């Protein structure tokens, strides 16, 4: 009787270990897609945790490509935006995001900007946080050199040239510093969010009346967080409310 109990305990222990190992190997992360609970593979779940920990633009971009290949446009756009939030000059993330928007069911909600506005946005995107920081340091150094040049300039000669050089260097340095500060603030408080459900209703800002139906991948800006809804601006400036479970924010999602 004693031996039977021992064998039974050993058998239960081995069975429990096997079940635990199987459960651990099938461990997945869950996310909402098309209104249903969907399972992510363990490898993708691990990649998400690694990217969120390292805050690396390339890792976020790779996740966007993975989700795009799975047909989940909402999560793909979310991670493309996360990559651009860290590095606005990430051309691959920008190109893929633009391609996704172009073939989106809600493509008509994105306004077409004037040519000069597009050029301005491209210039601002090119100067990422890292590039701006280097730019500030370079012109701070040049300003110091220009100041030394002015201080040790021959007092009998006209000082217009060193003063002009110093003024230009200071103006560029100050403008770059202000732009850097704005970009850092936007990076930490990015209001963008992405619709992750296949489709959901956009409600009136003041009632539960349905304005229109929006689809997965639509990029919105969060204006205010309410109880169960976000007050958002659509790309065309329209104001409405979306359920919180229907969207994921770029920051903290």
Q: Could you please describe the fold and organization of this structure?
A:
The chain has 253 residues and is of the alpha+beta class. The chain has helices spanning 2-25, 42-54, 57-69, 73-86, 91-102, 115-126, 129-151, 160-188, and strands at residues 29-33, 36-40, 192-195, 199-203, 210-215, 219-225, 229-233, 239-243, 247-249. The protein has three domains: 32-108, Serine Threonine Protein Phosphatase 5, Tetratricopeptide repeat; 127-188; 192-249, Roll (SH3 type barrels). The strands form three sheets. The protein has a five-stranded antiparallel sheet with strand order 8-7-6-3-9. A two-stranded antiparallel sheet has the order 1-2. It is elongated.
Could you outline the blueprint of secondary structure elements for this entry?
Layout: H1 2-25, E1 29-33, E2 36-40, H2 42-54, H3 57-69, H4 73-86, H5 91-102, H6 115-126, H7 129-151, H8 160-188, E3 192-195, E4 199-203, E5 210-215, E6 219-225, E7 229-233, E8 239-243, E9 247-249
Antiparallel strand pairs: 1-2, 3-6, 3-9, 4-5, 6-7, 7-8
Helix pairs in contact: 2-3, 3-4, 4-5, 7-8
């Amino acid at each position: 009787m004693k031996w039977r109990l021992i064998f039974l305990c050993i058998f239960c222990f081995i069975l429990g270990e096997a079940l635990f190992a199987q459960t651990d190997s099938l461990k997945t992360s869950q996310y909402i897609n098309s209104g249903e609970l969907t399972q992510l593979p363990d490898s993708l779940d691990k990649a998400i945790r690694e990217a969120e920990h390292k805050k690396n633009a390339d890792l976020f971009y790779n996740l966007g490509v993975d989700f795009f290949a799975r047909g989940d446009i909402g999560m793909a756009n979310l991670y493309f935006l996360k990559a651009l939030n860290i590095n606005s000059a990430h051309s691959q993330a920008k190109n893929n995001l633009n391609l996704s928007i172009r073939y989106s069911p809600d493509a008509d909600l994105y306004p077409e900007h004037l040519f000069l506005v597009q050029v301005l946005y491209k210039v601002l995107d090119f100067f990422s946080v890292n590039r701006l920081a280097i730019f500030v340091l370079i012109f701070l150094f040049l300003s110091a050199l220009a100041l030394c040049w002015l201080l040790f300039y021959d007092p009998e000669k006209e000082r217009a040239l060193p003063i002009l050089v110093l003024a230009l260097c200071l103006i560029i340095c100050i403008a770059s510093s202000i732009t850097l500060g704005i970009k850092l603030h936007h990076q930490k408080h990015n209001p963008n969010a992405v619709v992750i459900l296949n489709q959901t209703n956009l409600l009136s800002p003041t009632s539960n009346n349905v304005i229109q139906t929006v689809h997965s991948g639509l990029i919105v800006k969060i204006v205010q967080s309410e109880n169960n809804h976000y007050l958002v601006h659509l790309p065309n400036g329209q104001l409405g409310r979306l359920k919180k479970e229907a969207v994921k924010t770029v920051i903290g999602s």
